[in-house]
Amino acid sequence: MLFSASFAMSQRYAFIDTDFILEQIPAYQEAQTEIDAQAEKWQKQIEARYDEIEQMYTAYKAEQVLLSPEMRKKREDEIIKKEKEAKDFQREKFGVEGELFKLRQELIKPIQESVFDAVRKMAEQKSYAVIFDKAASSSAIIYSNPKYDQSKEILQRLGFTDTTE
Question: Do residues 121 and 5 make contact, with C-beta atoms less than 8 angstroms apart?
């Protein structure tokens, strides 16, 4: 029991604030400014497309009674096509795998990786077991020393064996 108490006391913990760290890095600020400017440009293009669609729809509603069934169908199809194009453009720019995501990966990820590398080196040098990020929701673990990972023991206690070995 004395051994486990001293083992627990010997583990060191720390926290960092990645938001604060990133805000102090000029390259991050420049990248964020570039990302924001591009996002604003794309947002304006999307709004312009939807304004055009709204104008088309307003004109269609005003002229609808004067149009033949074929012309009504043609105008409706044009409006639907424009809406689809606008939605596709929006998804292409802001979707999960869209251009904004790719731009963010290209500009921000290398900076984040250098921060995480610095955290890892510091943690190893100062013998931290775990480092939490207070900027992340629910204080995410940003670094953990694998020697303190007890997952395999829990599996054994549950009667399972590790299949990765």
Answer: no
